[in-house]
Amino acid sequence: MTTVPLSRLPGRPCPIAASLELVGERWALLVVREIAMGSTRFSDIVRGTGAPRDRIAARLKALEAAGVVRCETSPGGRRHTYGLTESGADLIPALNALLAWGDRHAVAADDPKRPARYRKLIKPDADA
């Protein structure tokens, strides 16, 4: 797991700033969301985020280096599947908080693409 020395951070260094150094880029949290929702293949993660393939590839590498995502290669080495590490699963309550905040403050009540209800993310079992 990567950590961020507080001495490296500008301004008022704190755990929030350190967290944002690791997962604060938009596509990073959407990658975590997609994996938490069950997308384990690269193409499914790209489709779910709507991001360009090269951005998702870069985010997956950065998240893997930070210890948030794990990558497993299939026998033969042609396919990769992605999952959340314990660190990644620990982000799920933060994503659920962003979901609730966004539902209340960031998406208009009359937005035609707004579903009546959003599904909260569930943290996987420790042995899953």
Automatic annotation (TrEMBL):
PROSITE patterns in alphabetical order: HTH_HXLR
Keyword DNA-binding: yes
Record key words, sorted: DNA-binding, Transcription, Transcription regulation
Record domain HTH hxlR-type: where: 14-110
Entry keyword annotation includes Ligase: no
PANTHER family xref list: TRANSCRIPTIONAL REGULATOR, MARR FAMILY, TRANSCRIPTIONAL REGULATORY PROTEIN
Name the record gives this protein: Helix-turn-helix domain-containing protein
Organism: Rhodococcus artemisiae
